[in-house]
């Protein structure tokens, strides 16, 4: 589980990361990363739209992405903001596929 200090909570912050961030596309997700010089832990946000599926499917995908980010948080540089957008194909992806995609993108764009 991600602590409150590790979450992006405001809509304006999501918008900033998506518009200004460096993008990394994968078959089931799109990861946006912005970095700053602030000395704070990395923050994560998740976008899972209704195109992914019903509420149960969306929440399952979101929980899987949160678990992946909680594992990879220590490999992400301090001050980074990461937003992960789940694509509709994420509904059929298993945990290992999502983990591989997200960790690859984080290693390319936000490695410590």
TrEMBL record:
Instruction: List the Pfam families hit by this protein, alphabetically.
Output: Ribonuclease_P
Q: Which GO terms describe its biological process?
A: tRNA 5'-leader removal
Key words, A-Z: Endonuclease, Hydrolase, Nuclease, RNA-binding, tRNA processing
Q: Is Metal-binding set as a keyword in this record?
A: no
Q: What is its EC number?
A: 3.1.26.5
What's its catalytic activity?
Answer: Endonucleolytic cleavage of RNA, removing 5'-extranucleotides from tRNA precursor
Query: What NCBIfam families does its record include?
Result: rnpA
Task performed by this protein: RNaseP catalyzes the removal of the 5'-leader sequence from pre-tRNA to produce the mature 5'-terminus. It can also cleave other RNA substrates such as 4.5S RNA. The protein component plays an auxiliary but essential role in vivo by binding to the 5'-leader sequence and broadening the substrate specificity of the ribozyme.
Q: Which family does it belong to?
A: Belongs to the RnpA family.
Q: What is annotated about its quaternary structure and interactions? A: Consists of a catalytic RNA component (M1 or rnpB) and a protein subunit.
What protein am I looking at? Ribonuclease P protein component
Kindly list the organism's lineage: Bacteria, Bacillati, Actinomycetota, Actinomycetes, Micrococcales
């Amino acid at each position: 589980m991600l602590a409150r200090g590790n979450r992006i909570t405001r809509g304006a912050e999501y918008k900033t990361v998506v518009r200004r961030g460096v993008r990394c596309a994968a078959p089931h997700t799109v990861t946006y990363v912005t970095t700053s010089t602030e000395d704070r832990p990395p923050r994560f946000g998740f976008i899972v739209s209704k195109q992914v599926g019903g509420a149960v499917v969306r929440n399952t995908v979101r929980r899987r992405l949160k678990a992946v980010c909680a594992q990879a948080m220590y490999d992400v540089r301090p001050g980074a903001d990461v937003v992960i957008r789940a694509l509709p194909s994420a509904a059929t992806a298993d945990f290992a596929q999502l983990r591989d995609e997200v960790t690859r993108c984080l290693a390319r764009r936000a490695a410590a």
